Amino acid sequence: DGVLLHGLSRPFRILLLVNPESGKGQARTLYKNHIQRMLNEAGVIHTLIPTERQDHARELVKEADLSLWDAIVIMSGDGLLYEVINGLLERSDCEEAIQTPLGILPSGSGNALAASIHYYSGAPQMCSEDLLVSCGFLLCKGLVSRMDLVSIHLSSGPCLFSFLSMAWGFVADVDIESEKYRHLGAARFTIGTLVRLASLRVYKGKLAYLPATRDSSDLQLPPLDQPVPEDWVVVPEEDFVLMLAMYQSHLAEDLLAAPDAQLDDGVIHLFYVKAGISRSALLRLFLAMEKGAHLDTNCQHLVHAKVRALRLEPKSPEGIITVDGEVVEYGPVQAVVQRGRSRMISG
Ligand code: ADP
Ligand code: MG
After folding, report:
1. What CATH code is carried by the domain that includes residue 236?
2. Could you give the residue ranges of the DSSP H alpha helices within 144-231?
3. Last residue of a domain, one of 148, 177, 204
4. Which of 77, 92, 96, 110 has the greatest number of CB atoms lying within 10 Å of its CB?
5. What residues form DSSP beta bridges with 74?
């Protein structure tokens, strides 16, 4: 759906990073059965490197001679692309490196970006191997668009780059707790949601955001220990069930969290659910989300805002914050959108 930049001319050369441990641990078989021949027939010359451990992909792209490749493609879940994007942005030539077209072939248990790109292409909703094959065709077409990134600032450490989501409360807890059901593939989130609903809790914190009402390129954020600027909205509630910031449409293969999100619209879709929601109402929200209908349920506890930046200051002593499904340091955090900072092969 984003603005098409160019099409890769055939034959094109890709670096294909395959995580054999992703999803149900069948990425190699999925590649052999569904992807290898398709790429060869489409004139996509690919060098396959299986990732051997966490951070392997990150180190590879940090050191790689990028002139060898027309694109870097990952076959895994969202986690491996997170490594690639952050690895590219850790390079001394990061401004150029992040212009490398990226691609994604879903073989993980969390394939939210692949599902989003597939959705923007106008294709009907699909899951697992059907989604993989369909994303394989999109890759072969080689159409490159810009994609937003969001920079995430924590109270310590360098800033991180995110392409999908930031979550706190219910969604973050489900994401991390459900890791133990990874062998179930995408069903892990359904099971995790049901388990978490049984022990639903309230998360205390302060939330503020800059509404996306005007174009604001090159936003400078104040340091985390300074108050937010005058034109920010400070959310009056401080008791939440969840906070979810989405920059693409899908939270998971079958969860359409932000139906009108686009690849490069410079918008963060901020959702939060206020404390006091019943278990059954929360369950109804997640069931409606399968069709992207949660905003039509008129749930009084759910708030949706389109924003450019946000700040979260959790007050509960312990908790989980995730960025693209990965745990980050728990504490104050701010996020700001960088419109069209990266490039993605999409439909
Ligand atoms: P999934 O959706 O199945 O979790 P991800 O792409 O999110 O798939 O991958 C999960 C994690 O696996 C990533 O953080 C990545 O660093 C790590 N990883 C990559 N290669 C390997 C490997 N060979 N063994 C174990 N973990 C790996
Ligand atoms: Mg977006």
Report:
1. 2.60.200.40
2. 170-177, 188-198
3. 148
4. 110
5. 17, 104
Nearest to 102 by CA among 52, 164, 26: 164
Spatial separation of the C-alpha atoms in residues 237 and 27, rounded to whole Å: 44
Residue 347 belongs to some domain of the structure = no
The string of pLDDT tens digits covering residues 180-228 is: 887 887 788 888 998 899 989 999 999 999 999 876 677 889 999 999 9
> What predicted TM-score, i.e. pTM, was given to this entire model?
0.95
| Helix H or strand E segment including 270 | strand 268-274
Residue with tokens 């360098």: 158
Pocket test for ligand 1, best of 16, 17, 18, 22 (most atoms within 8 A of CB): 22
Of the residues 30, 59, 76, 327, which should be mutated to test ligand 1's pocket, given the most ligand atoms within 8 Å of the CB? Answer: 76
Ligand 2: centre distance to CA 34 (Å): 29
Whether residue 178 is found in the same domain as residue 308: yes
Q: What is the pLDDT along the chain (347 residues), one digit of tens a residue?
A: 456 888 998 899 999 999 999 999 999 999 999 999 999 999 999 999 999 999 999 999 999 999 999 999 999 999 999 999 999 999 999 999 999 999 999 999 899 999 999 999 999 999 999 999 999 999 999 999 999 999 999 999 899 999 999 999 999 999 999 888 878 877 888 889 988 999 899 999 999 999 998 766 778 899 999 999 999 999 999 999 999 999 999 999 999 999 999 999 999 999 999 999 999 999 999 999 999 999 999 999 999 999 999 999 999 988 999 999 999 999 999 999 999 999 999 98
Q: Check 78, 175, 254, 265 and give the catalytic one.
A: 78
Domain span at residue 259?
Answer: 153-342
Tell me if 78 CB under 6 Å of ligand 1: yes
Can you tell me which residue has the tokens 């009108």? 260
Residues at Cβ < 5 Å from ligand 2 ion: 148, 247, 261, 265
Which SS3 state, helix, strand or coil, does residue 293 take? coil
Number of Cβ within a 10 Å radius of residue 251: 26
Per the annotation, the verdict on 130 as an active-site residue is: no
The reply to whether ligand 1 has any atom less than 6 angstroms from the CB of 20 is yes
99/135 same-domain check: yes
51 in ligand 1 pocket by Cβ < 6 Å? yes
Among 28, 52, 54, 323, name the best residue to mutate to test ligand 1's pocket (greatest count of ligand atoms within 8 A of Cβ). 54
Does any ligand 1 atom lie closer than 6 A to the CB of residue 205?
A: no
